Amino acid sequence: MHSHGEGGFPAESLFFIPAVVALVAYWAGALSPRSGSWPWHRTVFFTLGVAAVLATVLNPLAELSHTDFAVLSFSHLLAGMVSPLLLVLSRPFTLALRTLDVYPARRLSRLLRSGFVRFLGNPVTAAVLNTGGMILMFRTGLLDAMQDSMPVHWLVTFHLLAAGYLFTASIIGRDPSPHRAGYRLRAVVLILSIAAHNILAKGIYADPPPGIEPAAAEQGALVMYYGGAGVEIVLIVLLCRQWYQWSRPRSRIASGTRHQ
């Protein structure tokens, strides 16, 4: 089902506007002298992240996701896991704080320190929003609504992206965050979230959602399970790497103290 304006103009094409604005703003910041020789790979990550989520609301993926459950699962993987990972690795808030003028940079800094952002950025809150959204998507009438209405599909995609970004940032984010949780809590939340995602995928494989043929459900579940596992392995590796880098100076200090 498509949304068209006057003369058959596809409404989903309007998503090019925020995508292009985001890309232009990021690239302008990355090329600014204020960025301090911004690493090129972060710009690539941001560009790919925007392209990944944009692909899920444009054809052919948008149309196929209404008739093919495996494609819908792949779109979920792109919007809820792949794109958030790429966007978090691009560190957009760090770039913004470096390149914005003083007044908007201060306002952004205050926002990042606010209680609301602290609540949303807590790994537990982010995991509930992220995992809860996936369960609602596949285990309630929301799935039928997505297949029947393109605007609902867009809203769910936005939630997947936002919740996925919050979750990924709460686990491995390197942007400024005065309220970042400890590594033990992040590790526990990541493990539980991986378990929940795997249970959901296996549940879909064994018990397809209403209206989904068993063969299609099996294909979609395999996409979720193995595709999600790839992203989850990356999260585990990055979290362990950050934890090791954080603990290494403390280990050196402790070792030096023992030898005094």
The percent range for helix content is: over 70%
Q: Strand fraction band? A: under 5%
CA-to-CA gap between the ends?
72 Å
Number of distinct beta strands:
0
Low-confidence stretches: 251-260
**What is the helix tally?**
12
- Rg for CA atoms: 20 Å
The assigned structural class equals mainly alpha
The average pLDDT is 88
Q: Summarize the helix and strand pattern as letters.
A: HHHHHHHHHHHH
Biggest sheet statistics: none
Shape: globular
Question: Care to describe what's here?
Answer:
There is one protein chain. With 260 residues, the protein is an all-alpha fold. The chain is built from twelve helices and no strands. It has helices at residues 16-31, 40-57, 61-64, 69-89, 92-99, 102-113, 115-121, 123-139, 142-148, 150-172, 183-206, 214-258. Helix 1 (16-31) runs antiparallel to helix 2, helix 5 (92-99) runs antiparallel to helix 6 (102-113) and helix 11 packs antiparallel against helix 12 (214-258). It is globular and about 55 Å long. The protein starts with 15 loop residues before the first helix and ends with a helix. Residues 251-260 have low confidence and may be disordered.
Write the layout of secondary structure elements.
Layout: H1 16-31, H2 40-57, H3 61-64, H4 69-89, H5 92-99, H6 102-113, H7 115-121, H8 123-139, H9 142-148, H10 150-172, H11 183-206, H12 214-258
Helix pairs in contact: 1-2, 2-4, 4-10, 4-12, 5-6, 8-10, 8-11, 9-10, 11-12
